[in-house]
Amino acid sequence: MEFYPSIERATVQEIKIFQEEKLKDLLIYLQNKSPFYQNLFETHQINISEIQTLEDLQKIPATTKNDIQQNNDDFFCVPMSEIVDYSTTSGTLGDPVTFGLSDQDLERIAYNEAISLSCAGIQKGDVVQMITTVDKRFIAGLAYLLGLRKIGAGVIRMGPGIPELQWDSIFRFKPKYLITVPSFLLKMIDFAEKNNLDFKNSSVKAAVCIGESIKNQDFSDNILAQKIKEKWDIQLYSTYASTEMSTAFTECEFQNGGHHHPELLITEILDDNGNPVAEGESGELTITTLGVEAVPLLRFKTGDLVKAHYEPCQCGRNTMRLGPVVGRKQQMIKYKGTTLYPPAMTDILNDFNGISCYQIVIQSSEIGLDEIIIKLSTETENDIFINEVRDHFRAKLRVSPKIEIIDFDVLSKVVFNPNSRKPITFVDLR
What is the pLDDT of residues 30-57, one digit of tens each? Predict the structure, then answer.
């Protein structure tokens, strides 16, 4: 297959040697072109010729989101006249950061998405409906479009929202794949059921799911995925990416985690002290981009806590695979001695059929402790239902949040804000 790079079938040792050569090239490039890394190397007296192996990366301080926010311009390695696309991060953890892409960077992103979406089985001639925005400086939508074009697939650029239009497009153009936030599939199913649409016999066979997790840590379907598949028998593929990485981890047909592309990214999984975690443990994904021209990053801490899986995959790839995100480091909640992350709470809320919309709000109490408030809209507004939700939280997570019932029309406008790329189901006011 054209979009199945041979390096992904190489031995683990061959992949390591290949990446170490790429790393040396990157360090020379940063030394020559990047004001931020020139300063970092000088300040910490780093001689790049001494960085020979992947293990030697430990000698270099990590780069954080804060570094980029405070020194955004210093990360650019090409003159602004060579920037052909401007993107910004979604700003989930603070102010959005600007990333410029050169023509070569757009080519790299197209290649990344072509090999990533090929993992999920998309081929030349397949029709794909994109239920994601290409505008608002959003790199992902553009990346999918470029990758699908490279594969030779047909693209229906629908953008997010409006189930009626999505179904109209599906019945008209007969896409085989959708690219979407998975929770939106429940809205589409709901609309189809209420309007007697024969959605179970539509052309759609699979969805590439973005922005929300559909898997548990053992790769079984989480509650959101189960609810979709109970109603609609389609394949769901996880994919994980970020603006900073310009690279995606997408599942293959065996669905045991998103495959790493070693020609595009060096990965480290680090503990709180910046040391590599033991195999099988979760830690913060830290990435070094390869082949990025405009804004390359060295040891960038993503803020996402993940677990890596190293055993070879049945698909023949020997690359590392990433499990679902455990949580974001900055979104960790300490609640009466219990440590938890938003995904654990969204799983519980997705389990309730009676909840039509929800938002988790974390704030500090007067004495500086974390407080959890669950805002939700429900058709069954009574004390029994509220207690049932609270009991579920106690049983699963050993926490008892405050629950506020809010009218659907009010809450849905906040959660599905037209200015946001994803549903705003978590708000941190600490």
Answer: 999 999 999 999 999 999 999 999 999 9
How would you classify the pairing of strands 154-157 and 127-130? parallel
In 10 A of CB 248, how many CB atoms? 27
First-residue to last-residue Cα distance in the chain: 49
b/e map 196-217, b = 16+ CB within 10 Å: ebebeebebebbbbbbbbbbee
DSSP-derived letter for residue 243 is: T
Alpha carbon distance 257, 322 (integer Å): 5
Q: Are 189 and 200 in contact (CB under 8 A)?
A: no
3-state class (DSSP) for residue 288: strand
Asked if residue 234 lies in contact with residue 206, where contact means CB atoms within 8 angstroms, the answer is: yes
Task: Sort strands 265-270 and 85-88 into parallel, antiparallel or unpaired.
Answer: unpaired
The model's pLDDT over 229-247, given as tens digits with 9 standing for 90+, comes to: 999 999 999 999 999 999 9
Is residue 295 a contact partner of residue 77, using CB atoms and an 8 Å limit? yes
DSSP state of 297: -
Q: Identify the pLDDT of residue 210.
A: 93
> What's the residue count for the chain?
430
DSSP state of 115: H
b/e per residue, 275-292, with b = 16+ CB within 10 A? ebbeeeebbbbbbbbbbb
Residues 6+ apart with CB under 8 A from 416: 161, 423, 424
Angle at which helices 383-397 and 342-350 cross, to 10°? 140
What lies within 8 Å, CB to CB, of 365 at 6+ separation is 371
Token readout for 66 is: 């804060």
| Helix (H), strand (E) at residue 229 | helix 223-231
Q: Which of 51-65, 220-234, 322-336, 341-355 has the lowest mean pLDDT?
A: 322-336
